[in-house]
Specification:
Chains A, D: This is 2-oxoacid:ferredoxin oxidoreductase subunit beta. The complex is a heterotetramer, with two copies of chain A (about 270 residues) and two copies of chain B (about 575 residues). Chain A is of the alpha/beta class. Chain A contains nine helices and eight strands. Classes of the chains: A alpha/beta (about 270), B alpha/beta (about 575). The interface between A and D is medium-sized, with 35 and 34 residues. Bound molecules: thiamine diphosphate (2 copies), iron/sulfur cluster (SF4) (2 copies) and magnesium ion (2 copies).
């Protein structure tokens, strides 16, 4: 009867729209494994995403899901978790969704520390809209007609920003290492507070050179709770170090509580 | 013969405390068994600038400021021209001025009121630590015929949290002010006796006590009654008090309020909370609503119930944040991209915020739709003494499937258009909500059939719902109809009284449900009407245009529209109803 | 007798290359002296899914796909049901199928077309490295009577940047395909001869060459001609190509394009660029427009000229991003909070994107107002062969004050409603633009007088502008009028031809200026009309409702509305024009 | 004739709506001095702000100005500068405007490095809307009815975020030290690229305890171009260190250029 927690059960039967070879296939596989390993029942998971190739992922899980709008996965997910603390809440999306249009929510989700896990599939490109530069594209990446000589802006450093914004869990994985990716997702879900899993997830269509990521990534980080050390690691980072970068055990956000009162008691305030 | 109501204004520069005086006066009126309404008007300074408290007090519930102001007590003249439009004085008004504050300014003199000089500041100075606002309060209270003990109670209630010393000094100053009233009354006896018919204590001081509250607080309570247990907030004038009230109340009933980083976040949090099964809302005003429209479209497509209360202020853009207008009607009705049927309600007055707040939540939950509830600054930030309103007994129920429904279709094409909505945690019904067009299963679809079916169903559920009688508040008979919504309802009702008194029978139709427009009901309500005045507080006649887009008037249509910040006066409506000058016709 | 036009579709799974084949076919048509239109339809896969190239080719300019498809060449049957609605087959259609790809699917058979089997893949395999799309191309080109040399030119132009080897193989495969046409033609002679009257080379291959371009590129060029030199961009389907085209062109004329972090940023960058004196624009689609409405309101209040081109797609919410609809009309007209008069234009076809793009910039600059220019996916992402259109000679001029104007009033209340706008750098005219309501000097004001004056002036400048004849494209006479806008214009014109051929005279009125509605002009254009068909591609009849809100029809009004993704067909309009079944009446 | 560059000339005659004692008075004074000292003519300055008490500042200068909408000063200012590189562009606003609703633009303005100066008047409160918590309010600040037990979120660290987002100039000043504030603004304007001047600017009305800032601030930082050192300084920061934190000489953003072409040449692409 153990089959209830079989990773297969966490996949929906909807066929992904993704290109063959897209890194995102590994991410849905890893999520399914992580949920199965953690024995979290499908119906107790809310999986929220934005818009982009990667954001299609919510519909490929058999949990409750919400494929929302571009850039707003995090506040939608926060709303779910604060209203229903009993649910396991996952949010996911792309580098454009999360760091470009969604950058403000990313900043504030880090500091708010609502207990949920955010998985960003970073391919340094807008896949869904056919290949424009994203905030993590190299300043001189000339692959888009919108920026034919490159965006001319240094790529954003998502982990530095997360750390500066006081995220309590930060890690980086690569879709080519399913075991480590699964491990990080499990660890992130188990972490009490906001957890960011930054996933290097190649776009084989608009960034075919990312197939070479497998030769560049290196397992590097083991968890530290020391911010200075975590910053130091990032200052030395080549962008391909993987592992758990930082864990801060501070308690997650909880809204204010008060002694219960009846409606009549509440209304009494208005009486003259 | 005692009056049935009067208007009175208190003005003064920063620090003079006229708002506090106005507040206590309204409370004292309530404690005297009267009803009342108080509007605050402020200068542009962030804090401590000049201000005006404008009150109307009477023996019946008040929801309009009327046409003229009987008495103005001016503690000083700082920037009085800022309020000149809002305090309508004429030859029948009395202005009480402090001779030590210099000449009465031309903007006041031009209106030819009677003027009585009282050395307000000097009187205050007779009491060590005495403040001039208590002199003004005393004067006003005495002219209104309030019992000193009752006013003292109100002072205690208002200032008691400071110190007993402050209260004692205030009471002493109050008495000095009341004492000065005799001279004033003798100077202008016809005006200065404001005493209203009933000044018995409020009925049944035990159980059935009247309420004194702002429209924004009333909205908060209505929405709480509707069952909302989650609110995400971003402050904005003049909606913040809805959120502040809920911040205090929600935790008491097991709910939560979260302050978000912006309105994009707050509305998405609300969508998330509601998706998770908890009735959810937020409140905002024009600029914030603008930021929410994309997500409201998501809520339409993904069929997520929620309420956004939009407290309208002067527009466009940042506009006039502290003043009222009804110019967000267009965006509330039509501001969503794509074909996005949803519901728009409007509260008719402060008391009705209780009903409309509750009803809006019920509609949202019953139809799984976003509801935009419109109120406005004139209603939201004003305070009124009202008869308490019981919560409507109607339950808020979301249609849910049974657990383990085989082949569960979240967006099943049903006759009613409403499909059972599974709540996370329910076994065997997991689905993915989507803003992409989808099949009944919720799977993304670009097929013409699915698009048509889902568009039909989303439109049908809104059209087919049984809204009962609540779609409008209607009273009166006659061939002239005053058609309006929001805080102009009280003004229209007052105009109707005047017209009736002149032998012109009129009906007042105040729409509470703006969208969908109940065309059949409206047609019935307009049966026998020859002339319809469409009354609204905005520049481009948004209400009229909307009505015409959806409804074929048989009667002659006259527009009675004016932008903010000064409210439309009953007399303007009376004039428009009886002449042809003001508006265009159909 | 040779035909004057024909429709043809090519379909196939990912990788089959039918889009390339369609593209080359259109180019070959152009090189043969014909006009044409090609629409791409794609499956949901991000890349390489099944696709359809739908072409209409003829002797006169083409801006509608017509009612039926004469020939479908199906390279295979992968997910053909996805396109079934978009490729209208009937008994008079010919389907060319590859017998090796299995049975003809029921969705095709159900439409009873003639079917001819050609072993497309096997034929391709006769050429080493040969691809099946070139067989399909050859077949189609031969049926269309195109000269092999002309098609070869088009292949060279399209594939030349790859390698000569690819070109050579393609040419060889093409010939194999053309060879297979004879058999097909003999099987269904009445249908399969697609050759159109004129197949002379395009007129004057030297100077006056025809153009082949997409609506989005045409919009880009129109806007560049209008004088825009600054663009801020955030990609979104189906508007991205407008931005991509401008990204290449702007630097060549000394302008700049910046990719922004989101639409809130892009529209504010545009406001900044324009405030700084540089005509500025952006392009987006529904969800992006939603995010821009707050800032558009700022541009209204602060009187900043700018153009937003909104390329409409299926809504609400994320909707159907790759398909066309005209459902963003409401938000374009009414999506701004407060009273926010602005201009909304709509291009009538691909060629008109050139004119309307330029005109929109001119209107924005002349009136210092935001202009929302509507196009749609069906126009933006389609490609057409058109007669080149010269830039309009009209200049784009912003009214500026002289330097050192004494007591310069940025928001002076003028008769025209337009006030001289100083540009940073001009001496002695510095001012602060503001979204708060303001005095003529631009100082924040909460006064009723200033609010009324500024509201009046902002409305007046839009109403009083002389729009000339460009407000609509009108043709024909008669008691029936077809009233429409956007990409349905071509469809309506085609329906009108059919009606006229049947002896029913009709006029077609395509609005290019949606807001302000030229009610007097429209009244004149409708003189003598008994029946008006209001034709639009959306569910809730937004265009009709808008017209009714603002215009009093004297004629009977019939709605001809349907949502996307399938375009309205000429025959539907013909039916609606001649029966009473389809629509509701006024 | 030197009076042309008199600070008085840089002030408009509009009376500020600010409360007596508000820190923001010093900021307009410092800006006027800085512009006068730098001899930049009024008409060559575009001063852009958002919405809030502090954002009213644009109208109190006699330069060209734009009092835009809440949170959008930075993209509006970027638009001005990219379209008109000849102008001196200043942006200003509050902690709510800049770090709450405007957080995403802040992130991306830092990395985009358009040559302009951003002055944030941080009072750890929403003054304009009568005293709610801002992102820099303390987690346990109970002064607002909206968060009666405090926002329960650690305050954002604007300088850490700016550094992580790759701002090229970062400094902090206090309104009580007009000379240093003026110096920083001058330095920031002279810096080629995006410069952030973080100003501790007390709100005497809703945060009266901030009158005590004067006893807490300390002049501390001299410019460094070493990111590691700058991060280190911030890890030790008590929030009241002032001075120039970090300066990076990388070149400012410039949009792509191309060889000039006539319209006819551009149109020729469409001819068949
Ligand atoms: C408001 C809005 N703006 C723009 C878009 C268009 N859009 C869809 S996905 C996308 C970017 C996706 O990039 P990313 O998040 O990196 O996902 P990927 O496709 O690379 O996985 C954009 C710009 C949109 N849907 N909504
Ligand atoms: C879209 C939008 N949301 C909300 C508001 C209301 N609002 C005006 S100013 C402000 C906060 C101001 O705080 P801050 O930027 O810190 O400036 P301060 O007043 O403290 O100087 C808010 C929330 C608005 N004007 N627009
Ligand atoms: S386009 Fe790129 S990101 Fe999108 S599905 Fe294909 S490979 Fe993946
Ligand atoms: S409320 Fe605070 S920030 Fe606003 S003007 Fe007053 S002191 Fe300054
Ligand atoms: Mg990406
Ligand atoms: Mg602040």
């Amino acid at each position: 009867m153990n089959t209830e927690f079989d990773p297969k059960n966490y996949r929906s039967d909807l066929k992904p729209v993704w290109c063959p070879g897209c890194g995102d296939y590994s991410v849905i596989a890893a999520i399914a494994r992580a949920l199965a390993n953690l024995k979290i029942r499908q119906e107790n998971v809310a999986f929220i995403s934005g818009i982009g190739c990667s954001s299609r992922i919510a519909a490929y899980a058999s949990t409750y899901g919400f494929h929302g709008i571009h850039g707003r996965a995090l506040p939608l997910a926060s709303g779910v978790k604060v209203a229903r603390p009993d649910l396991t809440v996952l949010a996911a999306g792309g580098d454009g969704d999360g760091f470009s249009i969604g950058g403000n929510h990313f900043l504030h989700a880090c500091r708010r520390n609502v207990d949920m896990t955010y998985i960003v599939m970073d391919n340094s490109v807008y896949g869904m809209t056919k290949g424009q530069a994203s905030p993590t594209s190299e300043a001189d990446w000339c692959g888009s007609k919108l920026t034919p000589e490159g965006p001319s802006i240094p790529p954003i450093q998502p982990l530095e920003v997360a750390l500066a914004a006081q995220a309590s869990y930060v890690s980086r994985a690569f879709t080519g290492d399913l075991a480590e990716l699964t491990r990080q997702i499990e660890e992130a879900i188990s972490h009490k507070g906001f957890s960011l899993v930054h996933v290097l997830s190649p776009c084989v269509t608009y960034r075919p050179e990312q197939r070479g990521y497998k030769d560049r990534v290196h397992q590097e980080w083991t968890p530290t709770s020391n911010r200075a050390e975590a910053f130091q690691r990032l200052l030395e980072d080549d962008g391909f170090a993987t592992g758990t970068l930082f864990v801060d055990p501070r308690p997650p956000y909880t809204p204010m509580t008060a002694a219960p009162a009846s409606m009549a008691e509440i209304e009494a305030d208005f009486a003259i | 013969m005692a009056k049935t109501c009067f208007s009175l204004a208190l003005t003064g520069s920063g620090g003079a405390g006229v708002m506090t005086a106005g507040q206590i006066l309204l409370d004292a009126a309530a404690r005297s068994g009267l009803y009342g309404l108080m509007v605050r008007s402020l200068g542009p300074q962030i804090r401590g600038g000049e201000s005006a408290a404008i009150l109307r007090i009477g023996t019946a519930p008040v929801s309009s400021l009327g046409d003229t102001c009987s008495v103005l007590v001016a503690v000083d003249w700082g920037n009085i021209e800022r309020f000149a439009d809002e305090i309508p004085l004429d030859e029948n008004s009395l202005v009480i001025a402090d001779p030590d504050q210099g000449e009465v300014p031309p903007v006041i003199v031009a209106k030819s009121p009677k003027i009585a000089f009282v050395p307000l500041k000097a009187l205050a100075d007779t009491v060590p630590g005495g403040r001039v606002n208590m002199i003004a309060l005393g004067l006003a209270a005495a002219l209104a015929g309030f019992d000193e003990a009752v006013v003292a109670e109100a002072i205690q209630a208002s200032l008691g949290r400071k110190s007993q010393e402050v209260v004692d000094i205030s009471l002493q100053t109050l008495r000095a002010g009341m004492g000065a009233a005799t001279a004033v009354r003798s100077e202008a006896p016809e005006i200065a006796d404001l005493a209203c018919g009933c000044s018995a204590p409020a009925p049944d001081n035990g159980k059935h006590r009247r309420w004194l509250l702002s429209g924004n607080a009333a909205t908060g309570l209505g929405i709480l009654r509707g069952g909302v247990r989650y609110c995400a907030a971003y402050p904005i004038t003049p909606a913040t008090e809805v959120l502040e009230w809920l911040a205090g109340a929600l935790p008491k009933v097991g709910g939560a309020l979260v302050q978000a980083e912006d309105e994009l976040a707050s509305i998405n949090m609300v969508v998330g909370g509601s998706f998770a099964g908890i009735p959810s809302m937020t409140a905002t005003s024009g600029p914030g609503l603008s930021l929410m429209v994309e997500t409201l479209g998501l809520a339409v497509a993904a069929e997520i119930p929620l309420v956004v209360c939009n407290v309208m202020r002067g527009g466009p853009s940042t506009g006039i944040p502290t003043k009222s207008e009804q110019s967000d009607l267009n965006i509330a009705l039509f501001g969503l991209h794509g074909d996005a049927p949803h519901v728009v309600t409007a509260a008719t007055d402060i008391r009705d915020c209780l009903f409309t707040g509750q009803w809006s939540v019920q509609l949202a939950e019953a139809m799984q739709t976003p509801v935009i509830m419109l109120t406005d600054q004139a209603m939201g930030q004003a305070q009124a003494v009202i008869e308490p309103l019981e919560a409507s007994p109607q339950k808020t129920e979301r249609l849910v499937p049974s657990e383990n429904t085989p082949n569960y279709q979240r967006y099943a094409v049903t006759n009613s258009g409403v499909s059972p909505m599974a709540i996370p945690g329910m076994k065997g019904c997991a689905y993915t909500a989507d803003g992409l067009e989808h099949s009944p299963l919720g799977r993304p679809s670009t097929q013409a059939r699915d698009h048509q079916d889902q568009l039909d169903k989303r439109a049908r559920k809104i059209e087919a719902h049984d809204y009962g009688d609540a779609w409008a508040d209607i009273d009166g008979e006659g061939e002239i109809a005053l058609l309006t919504f929001g805080s102009l309802t009280g003004v229209a009702r007052e105009a109707a009284e005047t017209l009736r008194a002149r032998g012109v029978p009129v009906r007042v139709i105040a729409l509470r449900l703006l969208m969908p427009l109940r065309t059949e009901d409206l047609k019935r309500a307009l049966q026998g009407v020859r002339r319809v005045l469409v009354i609204e507080q905005n520049h481009s006649r948004q209400f009229l245009a909307y009505l015409k887009s959806t409804f074929d008037f048989e009667a002659e249509v006259v527009s009675c529209a004016r932008p903010g910040p000064v409210p439309i006066r009953p007399q303007e409506i009376v004039t428009a109803a009886t002449s042809r000058d003001m508006g265009d016709t159909k």
